[in-house]
Specification:
This protein is of the alpha/beta class and 362 residues long. The protein has 15 helices and eleven strands. It has a single domain, classed as 3-Layer(aba) Sandwich (Deoxyhypusine Synthase), CATH 3.40.910.10.
């Protein structure tokens, strides 16, 4: 008896040999379970999300930059125009700074006494080890930079990170060690980088400490909410699409997805939701937390266009495993795109959002 349920490709993977490429592995060996979801993710990213009319936002949680993911994956994607804007935890950006100012992270062991590490002046992030002095030096860097006249006012986190990125890019050039900083690359390619909780990291802690000494820097989170919504609205109003690539979950995931409720629910602007949804996570949906919430659930909030649910993939895979595979697959199977350089367009995009909001109110 014929049935559409048996219309899928017959499982008959190619045997792996010395000539097997990563593309072969993904396309011909990742047949089922989370391997199949990772295959679907690679295809969604490389074949649909990277079309020229799609604006791609990436959210980052988890200790990715200390593990080298910024250097190995995110910077190469940015260099090829595959990332247009970012929402990250402050911690990822703080640890990213270590690489730009000449500090080192080391492979370590997760099964070791933390009391001994503390006595030896070693800090660990699971199995990543580094000298405690790295923290002190990075804190000193931020305090020195934040003291500059250009920081003595209120600004959004995109502007703050752009200005920090310029210092990091210059420091990299002096050290001559190549491009190692995500923030420096974001400066070079004008990729806006937002932090959803700017006080929740060592960067925010140093900003708070400097305020006690009269420093004038204030981070404007309301501006961040409106600028991120303006990026998404601008993508749609230009006749294009909006894609979200969520690495992990947490506050950056919500901050990226809430752009659509901000546009529709709060500002009253007619819109339908993001067009593409890709998430790599180890969080479960049944606990009710945002980190594990599915794209189908996001439809009820207006975050995802219900007509685009077939173009939504969730991979339940460790990001440090999935992201290198996704990045390598995309780089091997899609030509570089022209960088959008959205940072320089933020004033124009925000102006267009404000104009449409005010016209709706009338």
């Amino acid at each position: 008896m014929s049935t559409d349920y048996l219309s899928g490709r017959i499982i008959n993977p190619k045997p792996i040999d010395e000539r097997t490429s990563l593309t072969d592995l993904v396309d011909s060996v990742f047949e089922a379970y989370n391997a199949a979801r990772l295959r679907e993710a690679c295809h969604l990213f490389a074949l649909k999300m990277l079309e020229d009319d799609v604006t791609i936002g990436v959210s980052l949680t988890g200790a990715l930059t200390p593990a080298g993911i910024g250097i190995s994956c995110l910077i190469p994607l940015m260099e090829r125009g595959f990332i247009d804007w970012i929402v990250s935890t402050g911690a990822n950006l703080y640890h990213d700074t270590h690489f730009a100012i000449g500090h080192e992270m080391h492979r370590g062991q997760h099964a070791i006494s933390d009391v001994v590490l503390r006595e030896q002046g070693v800090v660990r992030i699971y199995d990543v080890f580094f000298d405690f002095k790295v923290l002190l030096s990075t804190d000193e860097f931020y305090r020195e930079v934040i003291a500059a006249p250009e920081f003595q006012r209120e600004m959004g986190t995109a502007e703050f990170h752009y200005r920090i990125g310029r210092y990091l890019a210059e420091r990299q050039k002096v050290l001559g060690a190549g491009r190692k900083s995500l923030l420096a690359a974001a400066f070079d390619y004008e990729v806006p980088v937002f932090t959803s909780s700017p006080g929740d990291s060592s960067i925010g802690m140093n900003v708070a400490a400097m305020s006690l000494d009269g420093n004038g820097l204030r981070l404007d989170v309301a501006r961040d909410v409106n600028e991120t919504a303006a990026i998404v609205l601008g993508a749609k109003r230009s006749g294009g699409k909006s894609a979200v690539f969520i690495v992990g979950g947490g506050s950056p995931k919500n901050f990226m997805l809430q752009t659509e409720p901000q546009i529709q629910e709060v500002l009253g602007i007619n819109e339908k939701g993001h067009d593409y949804f890709l998430q790599v996570t180890d969080a479960r949906p049944d606990t009710g937390g945002l980190s594990g919430a599915t794209p189908a659930e996001a439809v009820s909030w207006g975050k995802v266009d219900p007509d685009r649910l077939p173009d939504a993939v969730v991979c339940y895979v460790d990001a440090t495993v999935a992201l290198p595979i996704l990045a390598a697959y995309a780089i091997a199977n899609h030509a570089p795109r022209q960088p959008r350089r959205l940072y320089s367009h933020l004033p124009q995009l925000l102006g267009a959002l404000i104009e449409e909001y005010k016209s709706r109110k009338k």
